[in-house]
Amino acid sequence: MQILGLSGGSPNGNSEILLKTALQAAQEIAPPDAQIHFVRVPDISIPRHFRVSDAKSAQGAIEQSADPSATNEPDDRPFVLRAIMEADIIILSCPIYTRTIPGIVKHFQDMTMGPFQDTAMARHRQRMAAATGDSSSDEDFELLFKPRVAGLMAVGGAAGTDWTPFGLPLMHQMFFSMGIQVVSQFQVNGCGLPGSILLDAAALEKARQLGVLLVSQAGKQDVTFQGPQQGTCPLCHLDMIVVKDGNEVECATCGAQGRFVVEPGENLVTVEFNEEGRKSSVLTETGKDLHLQEIMRVAGSLRPRMAEVADSREHFKKLDTEWLVKFS
Ligand SMILES: Cc1cc2nc3c(=O)[nH]c(=O)nc-3n(C[C@H](O)[C@H](O)[C@H](O)COP(=O)(O)O)c2cc1C
Q1: 140 and 288 share a domain?
Q2: Given 213, 229, 245, which residue is the final one in a domain?
Q3: In this structure, what DSSP letter does residue 5 have?
Q4: Mutate to test the pocket of ligand 1, among 18, 98, 200 (most ligand atoms within 8 A of CB)
Q5: What is the pTM of this model?
Q6: Which CATH number goes with the domain that contains 29?
Q7: Pocket residues: Cβ below 6 A from ligand 1
Q8: Which parts of the sequence belong to the NADPH-dependent FMN reductase-like domain (predicted)?
Q9: DSSP of 196-235
């Protein structure tokens, strides 16, 4: 069993203490040969821009923004990605910075996960290769599709939740593309001094329980989310809801479609997500497939017209020579 801890916080800070608490609890009940690795996300060297080679596994989705000169910066992404691929259990613990996750964690996520590891895209490539008899791919589909479970822990210094809205919702975005199933998540508030998490026995206990739970769910294809809170959305179990037309709503975290329901006779509004609406969630393969179809449709309609703007693109590129501020 491979257990991977990812921390987005300060060295030996609150997020790390929480993470190590969960890892220790996991180690206590894991098989004796279980291996634990811990990565400080801010220590990972990540190129500032996409490389041309990054576009390969992303169906061209980021081709145009790749930077041909970004080849000399150190790049630890392959090593960390391998650790994520091989892990059975991943625990991500992050502080809240300015109401959201640290930018460095988001940068790692954007540069490494997302479309690069999208299982719907990979299944599409696999189908295309089978249909055309192309056996040239060296992609390790078996490893990509293996079941993995994750636990999320967010730590904020503010007393209430009004300064932490984008913590857990953004941490989710790290895992859905690879189909890693989040089975437990929680947020701690009021953790405002270095190490003060050690004064919060309830938070440490939640971390221990998260570690134990993940070991019990590791390797399972279909796992059930275990809380501690069930939340409004039945897929991501969070509460960030986008209000749309009429009584329609969308889960901001995972994209499930639902509607407000006013309970008759009661002063109570609930949100209902039916079977069809749940299929839009990026936590389902159907939801990711819908997005794949959508981006292929968009790119397909734009590609034949790109020659029209070739000169304009050159014009904007050349403005760099006049205006671009360069950093060493
Ligand atoms: C730049 C910065 C911004 C912060 N913004 C928030 C915030 O918006 N909401 C909040 O609850 N705490 C905020 N905090 C407090 C941290 O989340 C809190 O101190 C946390 O325990 C730090 O975790 P660490 O020790 O793992 O780094 C912020 C801290 C820093 C350094």
Answers
A1: no
A2: 229
A3: E
A4: 98
A5: 0.93
A6: 3.40.50.360
A7: 9-10, 13-16, 95-99, 155-158, 163-164, 191-192, 194
A8: 1-121
A9: GGGG-HHHHHHHHHHHHHHHHHTT-SS-----B---SSTT
pLDDT band at 65 (very low <50, low <70, confident <90, very high): low
Q: Could you report the per-residue pLDDT of 2-50, keeping only the tens digit for each?
A: 999 999 999 999 999 999 999 999 999 999 999 999 999 999 999 888 8
Are 185 and 92 within one domain?
Answer: yes
Burial of residue 239 (CB within 10 Å: 0-12, 13-18, 19+) is middle
Number of domains the chain is built from: 2
- Domain endpoint, select from 229, 258, 278: 229
Shared domain check, 179 and 38: yes
Q: Give the model's confidence band at 244: pLDDT under 50 very low, under 70 low, under 90 confident, else very high.
A: very high
Distance 225 CA to ligand 1 centre (A): 27
What is d(CA 245, CA 255) in angstroms, rounded to the nearest whole number?
15
Token pair, residue 179, equals 């189909």
- Tens of pLDDT, residue by residue over 157-195, are 999 899 999 999 999 999 999 999 999 999 999 999 999
